[in-house]
Amino acid sequence: MLSEKLHTALNEQMNFEFYSAHAYMAMAAFCTDQDYDGFANFFLVQAEEERFHAMKFYNFLSDMGYRATIHGFDSPENHFNSILHAFKTALSHEKEVTRRIYNLSDIALDEREHATMAFLKWFIDEQVEEESTFDTLIRKIERIENDSNAIFMLDAELATRTFTPGAEA
Ligand SMILES: [Fe+2]
Ligand SMILES: [Fe+2]
């Protein structure tokens, strides 16, 4: 049995993960429009990962005997000045996700809700990976920003990224 506060917070995070997918779709669309199909692929895979994260919350709520409630949300950022700007927006989004996961963990800890704490452990680890992925790419892009050949090589590299839920779970 989860408290009203905790089950509402878990439901909110599920919706925020769906919103994250939406935010990454906007970044993918920007990259597609700039003919950077590899960067676009990277963000499309990222969006799939976020939906997978949302479904983890959906299934956890269901396993605990609660029905997920699906919310609408505001439009994500659709305006980007450059590829670098899109990646910087992504990193700050992931930092916000981390902050929210930590808040959620604090509630579970306060309530000594061990099943939820165990469930959230995966997300705490995942956020380390997420921030690191974006941080690394930002540093790479900053280094090669004015070298179009290098940018095209990175674009080609990111075109090979695929969604593998097995590796995530
Ligand atoms: Fe996520
Ligand atoms: Fe993420």
Describe it for me?
With 169 residues, the chain is mainly α. The protein has one domain (2-157): Ferritin (Up-down Bundle). Helix content is 78%, strand content 0%. The protein contains six helices and no strands. It has helices at residues 4-33, 37-63, 83-110, 114-144, 148-158, 165-168. Helix 3 (83-110) packs antiparallel against helix 4. The radius of gyration is 17 Å and the shape is elongated. The model has no long low-confidence stretch (mean pLDDT 96). It binds fe (ii) ion (2 copies). One fe (ii) ion binds next to helix 1 and helix 2. Residues 1-145 form the Ferritin-like diiron domain. Belongs to the ferritin family. Prokaryotic subfamily. This is Ferritin. One of its GO terms (molecular function) is ferric iron binding. Its EC number is 1.16.3.2.
Task: Itemize the secondary structure elements and their pairings.
Layout: H1 4-33, H2 37-63, H3 83-110, H4 114-144, H5 148-158, H6 165-168
Helix pairs in contact: 1-2, 1-3, 2-5, 3-4
The structure holds fe (ii) ion (2 copies).
Protein name: Ferritin
EC number: 1.16.3.2
Keywords: Cytoplasm, Iron, Iron storage, Metal-binding, Oxidoreductase
Taking pLDDT < 50 over at least 5 consecutive residues as the criterion, the unreliable ranges are none
Count of folded domains:
1
CATH superfamily: Ferritin, core subunit, four-helix bundle
Q: How many runs of DSSP E, i.e. beta strands?
A: 0
Summary tags:
169 residues, mainly alpha, Ferritin, binds fe (ii) ion, cytoplasm
Task: Summarize, please.
It is an enzyme of class 1 (oxidoreductase). The protein is mainly alpha-helical and 169 residues long.
